[in-house]
Amino acid sequence: MSKPPSGTPAPVDEIHWLSLIAAVAAISAVGIAIGLGLPLLSIIMEKRGIPSTLIGFNSAMAGLASMAAAPFTTKFAHRHGVAPTMLLAILFAATSALGFYYITNFWLWFPLRVVFHGAITVLFILSEFWINATAPPNRRGFVLGIYGTVLSLGFASGPLLFSILGSEGILPFAVGAGVILLAAIPIFLARNESPVLDEKPERHFMRYVFLVPTATAAVFIFGAVESGGLSLFPIFGTRAGFTESQAALLLTVMGIGNFIFQIPLGMLSDHVKDRRTLLSAMTLIGFIGALCLPMLVESWILMALVLLFWGGCVSGLYTVGLSHLGSRLQGADLAAANAAFVFSYAVGTVAGPQVIGAAIDVTGNSGFAWAIAAFFGLYVALSVVRIVLNPKRP
Fold first, then answer.
1. I want to staple 70 with a disulfide (CB 3.0 to 4.6 A). Which of 161, 198, 254, 343 is the partner?
2. Residue 100: which of 153, 175, 13, 32 has the closest Cα?
3. Which letter does DSSP use for residue 4 in this model?
């Protein structure tokens, strides 16, 4: 039997629970930090009289910081190790989280955002790589389903914490920093199980974006639809005649779908021959669901039912796309591809709200649905072309 190349972990048959807990802790910190930090900082800037345009510009630094940090994460982890790099990122993220309380100069919040979201991106990339590299091939989808479920729970827990803690004083910042620091404990305990990057990636970073386009395009669509949908659905819903509370409940229903479908879809991906087919099916459902939204505005219950399954399909793009990535690559290539995966997600989070918002302005309220359908339609076209051109590639 040939020996795996340097930096490529030997195939595993069982779930490494210590590694899973470490990666889950890191992604929990990511989800909670973003879910708590984004509304907290926006409300504080609003109270300080910062114009909405500047608040939006400052918030956009999150996506830009992620895109900037992604290409360098793998190189740094190769030089210093995966676990040490994650621990350093936790220190930077927690320190900068507290920095938002102590530094009141608005313009200094721009570099502070870069540090905070850059560090969070490092955790995002390396936790994905860790879990993908150590997951058993025959249970990769299930493991990544757990990972994605916890990420969704973290995103949901952040706003809940904000509603409890409020925006006054140091407490919300201290809690955010504390949650991030707690993630260091399981990472430190599992440091000897972290994957080793003995080799540098063989390709330029941007080539990894296109190396497994079915996966990176899936997470781009996920980022665009999730961020654009969460940001602008309340506008679509209220203009369609729903009350603010009804629109908020519809978003909650979509979040529930996002949460409950991660593990089942991950397990399903373990039993399909070609995960690209499953990704295509989910985007087709997303495409049809988006087109149906303007026709469902007369019925809150039907809208909620569609959004429940629609939210599950959107979240499945992340889980199954990440699983597809892990099945195709190993070692340093997998680490670099995970960085490209997060980079594509960040691009989606920047592009989604812009495209969907512009579509509403140009075509009216239904532009919300048309723009989201266009995102899904592009992916359906890409995946069909890929399957036709490479029918035998897994």
1. 343
2. 175
3. P
Reported as a single tens digit per residue, the pLDDT across 325-334 is 877 777 778 8
Question: What is the Cα–Cα distance from 244 to 121, expressed in whole angstroms?
Answer: 33
Burial 96-125 (b: 16+ CB within 10 A, else e): bbbbbbeeeeeeebeebbbbbbbbbbbbbb
DSSP conformation class of 294: G
CB 66 within 8 A of CB 118: yes
C-alpha 280/C-alpha 385 separation (Å) is: 11
Radius of gyration of the chain (CA): 20
DSSP state of 295: G
What tens digit of pLDDT does each residue of 121-180 get?
899 889 888 887 777 878 888 888 888 888 778 777 777 787 788 888 899 899 999 999
Instruction: Please give the helix or strand (H or E) that residue 359 lies within, else none.
Output: helix 331-363
Joined together, the tokens standing for residue 22 give 């470490």
- Residue with the two structure tokens 């509370």: 245
CB 339 within 8 A of CB 85: no
* CA torsion through residues 317, 129, 353, 168, sign: positive
Angstrom distance (rounded) from CA 266 to CA 359? 33
Sign of CA dihedral 143, 175, 190, 123: positive
